[in-house]
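User: Here's a structure from my thesis project, written as structure tokens. My advisor, Dr. K., wants to see whether a designed sequence matches the one we expressed. Can you design one independently, without my sequence as a hint?
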């Protein structure tokens, strides 16, 4: 089992300086197998599904500031951070967090570890990491996160500079990117190689492997590894890793051989350097919830191609509008005298990033909502039936309006 932050630690996470946070937890670890080797089994634990802030946008000259920082050190630069915001040290933000944290909050060890993280990151030239933490409000939460130890997969300043300005101006998006680059626990380079995965706080799992003598995590290459700080370690990446998170989940109860409702929608964030050297596809995979068994050929409409623009970052939404479960659950195979067992009908939906150049999965994210497969529409609960009837009527009405407009 990959152990993330304990409930006690989570309860002490302070509110962000930008506003309140909402965290949703599902404490149901489940195994995922991508190969036939039993040693590859990975137990995933759901973590933060929805983290977001309201915040100020970036200030002016963001692009120029980032481009300048990509080619040279900004240790002696202007008081603005590489994200274009007013530079503030993590120590200042932690002091503010200490004033707003509830009683019994972060201890001194966590604050010292967070301060040491900034010291090591700045010394290594990773100013973009520190500035992104401050911009999104995560800097104020670092003391609590560092209590359990953290591993930071830190894009270089040049990598941050590859993110388009409009995306850099979105604190919620940058926060999602950061949460996909921070892992609970201290994992040195040798640990990542041995485990072959890195599980981020946002729930996304990145494959870790040696390729041609170089270390790769997710879609990025590791430039420098094992930069230790108090209660953690930093690994510098040559690019921002591709990030997967859900914009919309399907409902729990679904119908066999019918499209999932609503259609799952993922946001895929890619940056130049990570997604320009290979072609990627997003694959949906179905796993049995009780056994963790990966079911081949269980889905239809489960493959989507990603088309990155050369030398540009992009944020694209991928909707699986015709995704449906084709494998008939065992409990739906009627036998005389046999009852129906809902447990046999429960599945987990996993979305994996497939590198078509190396023919391997490099990252994956699971949908927190489990799927309960019903034999027919009539077996759905009343509220689900009402939702589907409403959506059907809306689609018919919209289609009729479009046809009249065309006429």
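Assistant: Designed independently from the structure alone:
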């Amino acid at each position: 089992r990959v152990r993330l932050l304990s409930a006690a630690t989570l309860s002490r996470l302070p509110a962000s300086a930008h506003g309140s946070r909402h965290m949703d937890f599902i404490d149901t670890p489940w195994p995922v197998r991508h190969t036939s080797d039993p040693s590859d089994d990975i137990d995933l634990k759901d973590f933060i599904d929805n983290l977001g802030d309201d915040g100020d946008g970036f200030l002016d000259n963001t692009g120029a500031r980032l481009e300048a920082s990509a080619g040279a050190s900004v240790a002696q630069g202007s008081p603005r951070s590489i994200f274009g915001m007013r530079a503030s040290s993590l120590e200042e933000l932690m002091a503010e967090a200490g004033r707003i944290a509830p009683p019994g909050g972060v201890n001194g060890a966590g604050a010292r570890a967070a301060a040491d993280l900034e010291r090591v990151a700045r010394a290594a030239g990773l100013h973009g990491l520190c500035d992104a933490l401050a911009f999104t409000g995560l800097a104020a939460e670092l003391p609590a996160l560092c209590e359990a130890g953290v591993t930071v997969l830190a894009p270089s300043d040049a990598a941050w500079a590859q993110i388009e300005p409009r995306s850099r101006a979105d604190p919620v998006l940058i926060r999602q990117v950061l949460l996909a680059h921070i892992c609970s626990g201290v994992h040195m380079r040798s640990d990542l190689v041995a485990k072959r995965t890195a599980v981020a706080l946002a729930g996304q799992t990145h494959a870790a492997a040696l390729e041609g003598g170089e270390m790769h995590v997710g879609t990025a290459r590791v430039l420098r590894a094992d930069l230790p700080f108090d209660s953690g370690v930093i690994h510098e990446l040559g690019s921002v890793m591709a990030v997967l998170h859900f914009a919309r989940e399907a409902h729990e109860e679904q119908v066999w051989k019918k499209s999932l409702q609503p259609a799952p929608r993922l946001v895929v964030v890619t940056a130049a350097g990570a997604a320009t050297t290979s072609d990627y596809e997003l694959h949906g995979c179905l796993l049995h919830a009780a056994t963790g068994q990966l079911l081949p050929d269980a889905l239809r409409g489960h493959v989507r191609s990603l088309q990155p623009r050369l030398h540009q970052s992009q944020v694209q939404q991928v909707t699986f509008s015709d995704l449906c479960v084709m494998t008939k659950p065992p409990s739906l195979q009627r036998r005389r005298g046999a009852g129906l067992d809902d447990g046999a009908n429960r599945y987990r939906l996993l979305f994996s990033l497939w590198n078509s150049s190396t023919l391997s999965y490099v990252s994956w994210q699971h949908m927190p909502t489990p799927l309960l497969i019903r034999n027919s529409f009539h077996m759905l609960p009343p509220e689900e039936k009402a939702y589907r009837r409403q959506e059907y009527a809306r689609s018919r009405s919209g289609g009729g309006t479009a046809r009249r407009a065309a006429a």
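When you compare it with your expressed construct, this may help: DSSP finds eleven helices and 21 strands in the chain.
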